[in-house]
Amino acid sequence: MKTFSAKPADIEKKWIIIDAEGVVLGRLASIVAMRLRGKHKPTFTPHMDMGDNVIIINAEKVQMTGNKRQENFYWHTGHPGGIKSRTKQQILEGAHPERVVVQAIKRMLPGNRLSRDVMTNLRVYAGGEHPHEAQSPEVLDVKLMNSKNTRVAK
């Protein structure tokens, strides 16, 4: 018996749509990273892009537990003294709230060339509209997977 290794012709990609409204960010990111990588498939091959195309809508309405909204994102401009930072709360209220979700998913993937290719299969939109109706995506309800996936306000 030989170990199965998928070839490019064997790969079958689906389109998945996820509504992020009320879903906890870390739990959403781990599920999406697994789907992007293709680890949910029995034919998973580590060196191939086996994952599905994932569309996330309502990224601005994602929830965070604890004090995670006050955590900082840091980046450097490339100039001396050019370190910059913003909290997750500032980014969510700003012009590009989807960046918080994209960074969470990106950091759940390994840092290699394949992961950079896998990230091209992710589309994140701040609102409820998306231009991918022609692909007829299947709905993946993350809220129903586990009761801990949603944050209940206290």
From TrEMBL:
Transmembrane segments: none annotated. GO terms for cellular component: cytosolic large ribosomal subunit. The keyword Zinc does not apply. Keywords: Ribonucleoprotein, Ribosomal protein. GO terms for biological process: negative regulation of translation; translation. It comes from the Bacteria. GO terms for molecular function: mRNA binding; structural constituent of ribosome. The keyword Ribosomal protein applies. Part of the 50S ribosomal subunit. Belongs to the universal ribosomal protein uL13 family. This protein is one of the early assembly proteins of the 50S ribosomal subunit, although it is not seen to bind rRNA by itself. It is important during the early stages of 50S assembly. This is Large ribosomal subunit protein uL13. The lineage of its organism: Bacteria, Pseudomonadati, Pseudomonadota, Alphaproteobacteria, Rhodobacterales. The gene is rplM.
